[in-house]
Amino acid sequence: MVDQSMLLCCKFFVSEGRNIATLDAVERAVRMNPEIVIVHKFHDRAYNRARYSLVSYVLHDCTGNAIYNPLQQIVLAMAEAAFNAINLELHDGAHPRLGAIDDIVFHPLACASMDDAAWLAKAVAADFGNQFNGNSHKT
Q1: Rounded to whole angstroms, how far apart are CA atoms 97 and 47?
Q2: Is 95 a catalytic residue?
Q3: Is the pTM of this model over 0.85?
Q4: Alpha carbons 136 and 110: distance in angstroms, whole number
Q5: The pLDDT value given to residue 91
Q6: Nearest 5°: phi and psi at 9?
Q7: For residue 74, which of 122, 23, 34 has the smallest C-alpha distance?
Q8: Domains in the chain, start-ordered, CATH in brackets?
Q9: Annotated catalytic residue: which of 91, 95, 107, 137?
Q10: Which among 60, 40, 127, 46 has a CA at the least distance from the CA of 94?
């Protein structure tokens, strides 16, 4: 059984705020998993950037260590959708950016801990590095 009070939030920033097809592709990646909820989204047309706030549960082993969170796979799917849809050579916007994915932040909600959020951040960073060779843009 999932403890609904152990929740983690991901703030996912993508370098696109105008192209509806691109934003739909990123959001489709989230809708692949009903265990994740988009609790807020903000599309900034002037900066040409969007932020998604995603929430899901975290599971722990018998010693209390975090072992699973659905966000881990979905964040990678969102990144892949963004990489496939965003061409930074044609991109314009008022906000400086480092790549198609601008920032990924994790923090605890309810009874989850900062250790849980740190575990997820490290897991996503390792997977990101393995899957995308550490790039924040398509190579």
Answers
A1: 10
A2: yes
A3: yes
A4: 30
A5: 74
A6: -115, 140
A7: 34
A8: 6-132 (3.30.990.10)
A9: 95
A10: 46
CA 102 to chain centre: 10
Structure tokens at 60: 């722990």
**Cα separation of 127 and 108, whole Å?**
20
Sort residue 101 into left (φ over 0), alpha (ψ -120 to 50) or beta.
beta
Q: What pLDDT is recorded for position 93?
A: 74
CB atoms within 10 A of CB 138: 15
3-state SS of the chain is CCCCCEEEEEEEEECCCCCHHHHHHHHHHHHCCCCCEEEEEEEECCCCEEEEEEEEECEECCCCCEEECCHHHHHHHHHHHHHHHCCCCCCCCCCCCCCCEEEEEEEEEECCCHHHHHHHHHHHHHHHHHHHCCCCCCC
Q: Going residue by residue through the chain (139 aa), what tens digit of pLDDT does each one get?
A: 555 679 999 999 999 999 999 999 999 999 999 999 999 999 998 889 999 999 999 999 999 999 999 999 999 999 999 999 988 877 777 766 778 888 999 999 989 999 999 999 999 999 998 998 866 555 5
